[in-house]
Amino acid sequence: MTESITITDNRSGEQIEIPIVNGGVDASEWGKLLPGVWFYDPSFDHTAAAASAITELDGEKGILRYRGYPIEQLAEQSTYLEVAYLLIFGELPAPNQFEAWVHDVTYHTFLHENVRKKFMDGFHHDAHPMGVLVSTIAALSTFYNDAKNIDDPADRYKQIVRLIAKMPTMAAGAHRHSVGMPFVYPDNNLDFASNFLSMMWKVAEPQYEPNPVLSRALDVLFILHADHEQNCSTTAMRVVASSLADPYVSTAAAAAALYGPRHGGANEAVVRMLGEIGSMDDVGDYIKRVKAGEVRLQGFGHRVYRNYDPRATIIKQTADEVFEVTGKNPLLDIALKLEEVALADNYFTSRKLYPNVDFYSGLIYQAMDFPIDMFPVLFAIPRTSGWLAHWVELLDQNARIARPRQLYDGVPQRDYQAIDKR
Ligand code: CMC
Prior knowledge:
Citrate Synthase, domain 1; 5% strand; globular; mainly alpha; 2 domains
């Protein structure tokens, strides 16, 4: 069987044969036969906007791998910081590389005092922490002039370390501000996830000691959320970075894309939905409303997974471990019932709608006492390493500026009318 397609221009009868490589065709080949004719694909459903060696995702088979390593193995055996290194540098670190990496990230956790005092403290008391986070990431761009030197490997490394290290500090700071609690400085004796928990919850104790089960659960959630190939926020990162903007403003743009309820805000929407349903007896009625198109079943469905999201399977196990410590989240039974009813219903199975990563992650976060507003922030912390891996890859590819075509469907030319004639 020939791995190619042949296109005929019916206007001229001319033909062109285009090879199919890795399941896709090179769109620029079309241009050779059909100059000026472009694809209309507004949500990139049929368009690969990048070649990438970072994450492999097979939505039909439910496969997710970072740099070739199955997500299940990483979630069981690795740590978030090791995974961040793997994503960005392409290989698992050797012991000395890992030691240096952990040291560098740990010692860049502090924020410039003006970031905290002038920027973060300036937000209104009820500001959504994700809005605070997005703005503060962008503000970092004004503190590090070396961020513009994106071709210098040493400067690049510095910004990567700073961003990964400071995300938990900014995230926890956004929360403390919203509840009127004093800001907690990083504790560099703690590991990445434990330090974040300390900055979130420490009150007057000399050293915060997080429950190791909860720290590990959070670290696993960070691993699961670290990258997911060309999702909405990563695409935003790549598009903005393709203009050669610095990594702080590019990351702020990616975080802004993550803020929406169709993306990083979905776990927040799941918990609100479960609260709205209120009891197991009302699950059937809610499913009816979903099928009538009145509401969506939050935490279900995915643009690429047409099978169970492998992250959802791991998260379900993590949820059991967390609930052993925190007690069961009362919304869990409603979630389990919803899943059972939906998976037995042709509406969902025929559309290949299965639970995604967000169906259970919100329940874990809630059991760990994170306010709902913090859920997208918890997603942004680890996704930063994925965004930065794509940033490095894009720069190394010498990618051209992203500039899609447009199908103009507005009015044709017309003459300007003076205001008294309208
Ligand atoms: N509940 C009910 N029906 C749904 C849902 C849902 N959650 N998702 C899709 N459908 C239906 C949709 O109405 C359509 O039906 P029909 O063919 O009759 O018109 C069909 O399934 C195909 O849906 P679509 O809107 O074309 O799917 P999409 O690929 O554009 O959207 C999605 C993907 C994730 C935005 C969508 O499934 C959704 O809104 N899910 C709920 C929000 C959510 O859980 N988001 C988290 C995604 S995972 C985390 C991340 O990676 O950010």
